[in-house]
Amino acid sequence: MDYKQQVAAALSSAIDGALSTEDVYNKIERPKDSKMGDFAFPAFALAKVLKKAPQQIATELLEKIDQSQFEKVESVGPYLNFFLDKAVFSADILHQVLTDGSEYGSNNLGKGGNVPIDMSSPNIAKPMSMGHLRSTVIGNSIANILKKNGYNPIKDNHLGDWGTQFGKLIVAYKMWGNEEDVKKDPIKHLVDYYVRFHKEDVEHPELDDEAREWFKKLEEGDAEATRLWSWFREESLKSFNAVYEKLGVEFDTYNGEAFYNDKMQEGIDWLNKKGLMHESQGAQVVDLEKYDLNPALILKSDGASLYITRDIATAIHRDKTYHPALNLYVVGSEQAYYFAQLKAVLLEMGLPSAENLHYIPFGLITVDGKKLSTRSGRIILLDEVLDESIEMAKKQISEKNPDLPNKDEVAKEVGVGAIVFGDLKNERTNSIDFNLADQLRFEGETGPYVQYSHARAESLLRKAGATEVSADETIMTDPEAWDTIKTLADFPATVIQAREEFEPSDIAKYSIRLAKTFNKYYAHSKILEEDDQKSARLALVKSVSIVLKESLRLLGVKAPDQM
Ligand code: ARG
């Protein structure tokens, strides 16, 4: 049950229509100091409508409100403070968490609606950048959050696997390439060929003609061109998959740009039929003045398609295939202008899902102040950061808990979790500088801290043995228990908020808050003491463990039972 809703309802009937229930709900605050109640309503919100002093409004409201459902209601100055009935509330929340288990906090707001998520989307034959990593991790978490809200997310890896550069790559490979090298370290060597091509074509411009020729062949389905292209693609994917595997991220589809190569005509016809295309210096463009944007270039003067031409085809395909409830693109903020143009074009076309198109940008990431892109083009760098993190985690775990049986597995979950959590705890549009050692600490606002709090809860439950947990006679009135229970009660609303904002950091911050209140509770109480409250305390511990684990799962982070 949403207790804020209960407060809003009680207020609403007392206010008698002066403010909508929704407005009341949004005005209700959570006092920092619990002496001021569990919820507070600032009567300022009504002063204008009622033309009275807030203080007077508060006193009058207090008279009218049905107080029976609360422990007490007080007016303090211009505020109305609500104190929930602790016994009823605690038992109710713990009961709910224990009954629902990992389903606690789930809702069906999405009603099963399809949500394609364009995410990760690295470019073939190039290293995966930190930006692609962020897109992977953020997109994956948003998919989990959507599912928790009753949607059906479809994770689509829109690979950059088409374009004139593949003609160049084929020419370069045929001249200087060798199969063994590509197999050993595909990205590195493919980048080398590409770089060398650009060096040599300065003096040998005929190379460019050849490259154009080969790309044309590729477009026409020539056997050799296709064989080489799919091999480059396959080898690149192998190295990308090593990263995805480590992160534990899977995709539903890999419909990259090439997939749309033969599907672009429909979009072009659509634009023409609507009279949206016009010629500008030989090229075909769509005017977007109405949106305060520069014209979008759809076809080059030689008729060649562009990134946006393929994106229009992509949007049409997703629209027809999924009838998306939401249509998401998780792509770095450097493409903000481009996505504004894309959305504008789709709106002009009248594509049904254009209204639901949400571009979900995110900021830059640097590691210890350094950008992680590299000329030598090794995706390995990313892989190296993950490995280094796992190695560091292993060291810490071995010091802390030398007897842990499955150290390697836990080190992987903690090492990778630290990186994923360290990314997701930041509002996604912020740029972040990543310091591995900081993110790996077991104290502070880190993934390992939340994981450790979960493991601590599990260890308590193990120590308690087969003791029954029971939420029934919960009377735990100490403030630490009460804070923890209230935090547990906040989870469902946090799940909704994270979906509304497409913001995994809402969940990450929540998990830190829950871990902190729980650790305070842990420090203040003798949880395993044999008295009549023991099973209630264990119910609280069990509930915390469930919700911490579920929060981490939403972020794509594992929660080991021991560490
Ligand atoms: N491959 C692109 C890049 O690395 C990202 C693709 C984003 N998705 C899209 N539908 N345009 O910049």
TrEMBL record:
For the keyword Heme, the answer is no
Residue ranges annotated for the DALR anticodon binding domain, each copy included? 450-563
A Gene Ontology molecular-function term? ATP binding
Broad class of enzyme this protein falls into: ligase
Compartment(s) where it occurs, according to its Swiss-Prot or TrEMBL record? Cytoplasm
InterPro entries assigned to the protein according to its UniProt record, in alphabetical order? Arg-tRNA-ligase, Arg-tRNA-synth_N, Arg-tRNA-synth_N_sf, ArgRS_core, DALR_anticod-bd, Rossmann-like_a/b/a_fold, tRNAsynth_Ia_anticodon-bd
Supply the EC number(s): 6.1.1.19
Q: Which reaction does it catalyse?
A: tRNA(Arg) + L-arginine + ATP = L-arginyl-tRNA(Arg) + AMP + diphosphate
**What does the UniProt keyword field contain?**
Aminoacyl-tRNA synthetase, ATP-binding, Cytoplasm, Ligase, Nucleotide-binding, Protein biosynthesis
Q: Where is this motif: 'HIGH' region?
A: 122-132
Q: Where does the record place the Arginyl tRNA synthetase N-terminal domain? A: 5-84
Query: Could you tell me the Gene Ontology terms of the biological process aspect for this record?
Result: arginyl-tRNA aminoacylation
Any one Pfam family here would be Arg_tRNA_synt_N
The record's CDD domains line, in alphabetical order, gives: Anticodon_Ia_Arg, ArgRS_core
Question: What GO terms fall under cellular component here?
Answer: cytoplasm
Family the entry assigns:
Belongs to the class-I aminoacyl-tRNA synthetase family.
Oligomer status and interactors = Monomer.
* Protein name, entry field: Arginine--tRNA ligase
